[in-house]
Write a structure and sequence with these properties.
mainly alpha, 0% strand, elongated
Length: 58
Amino acid sequence: MSTTPELEPRAPRPALVFDDPLDQQSSDDTDRGWGERSEGDSAADLKRFLDEKPPHHL
């Protein structure tokens, strides 16, 4: 009597994609990829500017 555990079905492996990677848009191609914020107003822009200003520019 052998007790072999039943194998659970595995999730399917992701398919290999052989498309040209240069045809796809990367996150660096957008403002979002560079850390830009899409929404905001002038008060928020001023606050961000003052928060990110280096100390030697005071």
